[in-house]
Amino acid sequence: MSNWNTFFGPITAGESSLKFLDIWFSKNRINYSKVIILTDSNVYQSCMSIFFGELNNIGETAVIEVEAGEESKSLQILSELQLAMLDNGADRNSLLISLGGGVVSDIGGLLSSTFMRGIDHLIIPTTLLAMVDAAIGGKNGINIKGFKNLLGTFSSSKGVYIYPEFINTQADGDIISGFAEMIKHGMLSGSSLWNECLELRSMSDVKKLITKAIGVKIDIVQKDHFEKNGERVFLNLGHTIAHAIEYIQGHNVSHGNAVAAGLFIESEIAFDKGLLDKRDLKKLQVLIDKWWSRLKLANDDLLEGMFGDKKKSSNSKDYHFSLWLGPGKGARLEKVSEKEIKKAQERYDKD
Ligand SMILES: NC(=O)c1ccc[n+]([C@@H]2O[C@H](COP(=O)([O-])OP(=O)(O)OC[C@H]3O[C@@H](n4cnc5c(N)ncnc54)[C@H](O)[C@@H]3O)[C@@H](O)[C@H]2O)c1
Questions:
Q1: What is the spatial distance between Cα 244 and Cα 308, in angstroms, rounded to a whole number?
Q2: All CATH 1.20.1090.10 domain ranges in the chain, comma separated
Q3: Candidate from 22-36, 87-101, 271-285, 299-313 with smallest mean pLDDT
Q4: Closest by Cα among 129, 146, 76 to 107
Q5: Mutate to test the pocket of ligand 1, among 67, 106, 155 (most ligand atoms within 8 A of CB)
Q6: Atom of ligand 1 nearest to the CA of 46
Q7: Which CATH number is associated with domain 172-350?
Q8: Is 257's C-beta closer than 6 angstroms to any atom of ligand 1?
Q9: What would the pLDDT profile of 300-309 be if each residue is shown by its tens digit?
């Protein structure tokens, strides 16, 4: 069992995490007028009975379900959820539990931090990606007109409970999506996590890396809670390009596959700028090509997808990217020109 106390709430990870959550309910359930579980249609099928099976002290609950998929991170669904909360009798003393992947925790975080100016929230991530990334760090968000996470808040939760067994029912493609974020954490920390990512043979072994990956993300966000002094922005590694790909390809591509392509292309840019060693670049590219096929980007104008990115510098044609400096060396925020982006994209397409 691993426990962390962070500025955005306590985190508990491991096989007994749901038992710890049950103990939490035995002490705290009495404080809540209503407990509402937000989930999606797939998670309802795969995880709900396991969840209830472990919790003897949760008491009466209401369940609100959204459609599975990124489309649920929308303004319209958010407003429908606010009304669904009212329909289910929620008030200021209610507790919202987000049980699901990053989509559910992102919209649940925003819902809980805005409903009646904020109610208590618990996060139970059920995908690898949400366990090692989306559920950690207090960020939430929804997409507006295709632009990722344009509306969101920083919010803390009463707890994040990570039960790795939930990923047993995830589709292989979705598990690999989470692995892309683990690679990013390994790249930044350069600790044993980086080598374990390079050496991983089968996704069935990925659970062993979860605790380390969570630790890396916590270390980074604890140094820069609100992305103000530079450290946290390093977690955007690969994501400026990834979000552009998702914008252009209309979310037909998985987040992890877009992140893998983003890490590849942005590392090419870092290499071109003399920030990254050729050997480290190659190691990363071999690792990415081992798990993902190259996306077809040849005719895509990534710049179009970056127009609304929050990292774009104002009044300029340059973009701000977090560029990798090598394992354990972190990243550096750098201005990148359109020409540099196009050149790196061409190499991804041609290699
Ligand atoms: N807030 C943050 O800091 C942060 C960080 C990274 C990513 N994100 C966001 O996270 C989202 C991606 O998260 P995701 O990959 O978890 O996507 P997701 O929530 O859409 O889950 C992927 C799919 O798996 C299904 N699923 C979830 N758990 C399952 C289980 N245990 N068994 C079977 N199916 C299951 C879901 O229904 C969905 O179809 C994106 O919207 C991204 O922007 C947020």
A1: 9
A2: 172-350
A3: 299-313
A4: 76
A5: 106
A6: 32
A7: 1.20.1090.10
A8: no
A9: 678 887 765 5
